[in-house]
Predict the 3D structure of the following.
Amino acid sequence: MSADKGVREVMLAAVPSLRAFAISLCGNVDRADDLVQEALLRALSNISSFQPGTNMSAWLFTILRNLFRSEYRKRRREVEDVDDYYARQLTSLPEQNSRVETNEFRAALNLLPPEQCEALVLVGASGFSYEEAAQICGCAVGTIKSRVNRARSRLPEILSIRAASDLGADRATVAVMNSGVVGSRRL
């Protein structure tokens, strides 16, 4: 498959989902945008390795995930802002309730183990099947199902909610929360 107009359209259609996934991985919008841009550049420069007939979106997500993992390994060696002193100086208080709720949800996602958060965002928000998410993450389908189930069970506990509607959340947040079962209640 060459980098023709069809490939370009498929890649551009995947950008919003790639961006949301990148934000969930790194928690920083600017860094996420850079990550998406780098993933798309790598995909274009290696388009000859894409196998026609396979899921290009999953291929792009795999590239993005691998880039993030590589960056993470490099950044582990950097000096951390242990008590978040500098980070707190750079933030401002939210101006709207929806922004507060979004920030609370993002913080709750960050409290999940990284593997659970990643699986939940891929399946819940990005709309990948369990099989596609397993391929992206390089693990078994059962592992993805388990991670998603654990994450969906844990999120309402972290957020102290009984239903997704308690959040007043946007469609993406509701998609992540939906199809999870907490006790006998369906979210």
About this structure: Residues 94 and 103 are 9 Å apart (CA to CA). The chain has two domains: 5-75, 96-186.
